[in-house]
Design goal:
flat, 7 domains, mainly alpha
Length: 751
Amino acid sequence: MPLEKSLKKQSEVEDPLTFGGILSPLRHVMDISLEALKRGLRDQNQHELAVAVSSLQRRVSTHLSAHRASKVDPRDLANIAMSIFNPIALAIHTANFVIKQTPLDQFKRMAKSQIDQWIKNLKDKIKRLEDLGASKSFINTANYTITRLQYKKSRIDRFRTKDQVQTFLRMVKEIYRGEEERLDKAIEELKKRKEKPWWEDLGKAITDAFAGVGEAISGAFAGIGAAIFGALRDFANWFYENALKPFWDWIVEQVKGLLKWAIDAIKGFLTWIKSDLMPTAKPYLQSFYREVVIPAFDAFKLLVEIVKGGIKAILGWIITKLKPFIPLTPDKAVDLACYMSAIGVVVSAGTGILNIFGRIRIFGTQVDYTAITRAFERAFSVTAITAVAASVLSGIAVRTPLTYAFNYTFRPTMPSEGTLNALRGHGFITKEKYKHYMAYYGYPDEWIELMEKLTWTIPSERQLINMLSINAITEEKFREAIKWYGYDDEFVNGFYKLAKWKPSQVVAEQMFIRGIIDEKSLRQVYEDLGIPREWQGKFIANLRRPLTRYETRITWEIRGLTDDYMIKTLKENGYRPADIPYMLSYIKGFTARTEKMAAARRIVRDVREGYYTPDAARNKIRKLNIRSEIVEALMLRAEAESEGDAKADLLSSLLEEFEYGLISRERLLKELEAYGYDLDRLRTTIRRREVRRRRRLRDLQLRTIIALRQRHKIDDATCLQMLLGIGLDEDWARAWLEYAKATERARRETA
């Protein structure tokens, strides 16, 4: 084959112990694969993407040329090989190139088209769930998510930049992904049949190629020893079942016929692994076994498990996170990401074993690998995955999470002086920790002590005065704290006198009238307030003055005093004897008139409540000797209030029916307009009722979901997804789930 001849010829020229000798075959495979990719893109008129692939190919070639003569390290070999064939890097590079060249209006249309595709996918999954017999409540929750996506789609036109559209689309994608995962899980649980073997869609050619690679890998380790061979055999089986098979299964589902044109290139690469890479690497592996593996055999068995977990995390990351990239990129970048995924996963199969030996070398040389392992784990954590997904839209490179992991592990930065002051001031760190970190900035201990006091929170002057007035703090503490504001001793004494509370003039006089304090105490208050002695006597004489005319009338109405007592009281108030009869008549007449009007108002109220007819009410009011014009005014008021009450009752009934979902919004507006209500004035009231209606609906949905969980109609995962589907955030949803489980346990224990 031309590929095999080219690889053998290149291996004869290069030194097999250098990067050039080992990476040259990989480079040839990359060139052949990318050339086939560019031909396929040009055949489909994807010229822009073909240019992007050429740019990436030139950069990789330049990078390899710079390291051609350096000695080989298996770890570096694995890292460079995976970076060359990293499908995510190519997808990011191409997606950013296409996004920059796309006009805003076209980008909005593409975003809407993408949301339509998501909605179609969800509808297809819902149809499958209905065919499998899913519950109606579960289907309704999924349909509600589709309604939310349709509403989100209608808001895209108001954005003015592509960055805003990308950010908004990322938010919509999270809604879609959460619902998609929920539906996929439900479908898997409901399916009663087994899926077709994953290799049938691609044909026997790829199946045979993978089988050949497995035999070549096993043969390369045949002479190393039974124990190690068994461990590697177990690893190879795990790698195939948990990494290659699920990933290829997903590729078959996504691209189907689009992958057939790349089969020849993939088969050539697999043939090279079987015929050239494994025979060439076998001497190095056996030498490595003699020098390193035998002395560290026990450590090696433990390390195999560590690496298996690491590779499983990487492959799981690629499988789960490459798929969400596809909806977020334009249509041209979607196909490219799928094509390169087929090549990238095969290269991962060839370099996975080299990763193992790179980690063994660290173990064999007694190098502490703890920090490197932690950095590796953080680089592929949830934070890193989120950054990689966001980079497709925002243009941020994959280096951001890797830089974060490196700085977090090897270059931690201490907080600044201002941050330390804020942390200490809010009580988040102790005094000892504050002094420890401030010493890094070169401050001596005495200055750190003073700076620590500046972080204290001091009450205001008014708060200090109030605390002293109620004896919450001592005089010494008050004087010490008030000086923090820079007051001298004279002002401090003034604040102290102000804090010693004394009653005001009005309060003291009321206490004197009620007999709580005597005249001596009252005069002391007057002295403290600076009132002259001549005015003190006048104030006290005025306080001893008997009841006023108004107080006399009120007292007579309430207590029912006799005429003689009232005449005596009026005389004591200074009224002339000739005026006292008129005053007595006024008091009695005013009281009688007040009682008649109160009785008339009670009759009018009975008319409003339907106990009397208007004519009967008029006759009763006339018997109270009230003038006719007053009677008519009272009746007109009663009729107006009755009509207003009826109209108010009608409005309240309509709004209540709307709030409880008995009538729609259109029906409510139509009824209000028919009865002559001003809809503009009622807009706020209707909006408030709409909010209460939605709240009642959500409460009903929440109670229904909790009841289903308490009666074991749904499991925890379904309950959590349904709670998220009605709009609760994750923390509240988990709290309600725990509440449902706790109440169910309590009821079971009680029973």
